[in-house]
Design goal:
The chain is an all-alpha fold and 178 residues long. It has 2 domains: 37 residues; 125 residues. Helices cover 66% and strands 2% of the residues. It contains 5 helices and 2 strands; from the N terminus they run ααααββα. The protein has a two-stranded antiparallel sheet. A hairpin with a 2-residue loop joins strand 1 and strand 2. The N and C termini lie far apart (74 Å).
């Protein structure tokens, strides 16, 4: 036998569940339909991105021309020096593009804040490549190791920024990854 108090508490409980489900449904609707989609890395200057993409595409083409797919004898110091020279020449193309890009600031405040950070990260990546070439020149064959920033490889941060600003050619080259 149900009492009036039991029916009231049962009705309140049912209302709380319905409101809870409605709230969850609203959160999902907002998240998938209404929430803004702007990326944290998008600087909002498509012209700057296009200029950077052009510079990076030129560097990428120059790196492609340097490709040497021949096998090297890891016990031959001359072969390791030759490989180091190729790495340095490829890194030169990256550095030249970044030097050009660094002289061209975006028109947006967000871009002027984020691009110098991206360029600084790129300079760290370039230094990692130079260190790798020096290791090869020293007679050691090791796997390329890059700096870690905020728990992720620096190339991942660089690539994400490049992708989110439509600068696909400005993603770090993967020529040294195993």
């Amino acid at each position: 036998m149900e009492t009036r108090g039991t029916r009231v508490s049962s009705g309140i409980w049912r209302a709380v569940k319905v409101l809870g489900l409605a709230f969850v449904a609203w959160m999902w609707f907002y998240g998938f339909v209404l929430a803004p989609r702007e990326s944290m890395n998008n600087i909002g200057d498509a012209q700057w991105g296009a200029r950077a993409e052009t510079r990076c595409a030129t560097a990428k083409a120059a790196r492609s021309a340097l490709a040497d797919l021949s096998r090297i004898d890891v016990d031959d110091p001359a072969a390791l020096r030759k490989k180091a020279d190729v790495v340095d020449a490829a890194t030169d193309t990256v550095e030249q593009a970044i030097d050009q890009i660094s002289r061209d600031l975006p028109s947006t405040d967000k871009g002027r804040a984020l691009v110098p950070e991206w360029i600084s990260d790129y300079r760290t990546y370039i230094r990692d490549r130079r260190d790798y070439a020096d290791t090869l020149r020293g007679g050691s064959i090791v796997e390329f190791s890059e700096s870690i920033e905020e728990g992720v490889p620096i190339s991942e941060r660089l690539a994400k920024f490049a992708r989110e600003n439509d600068m696909k050619s400005c993603q770090p080259p993967r020529d040294l990854q195993a």
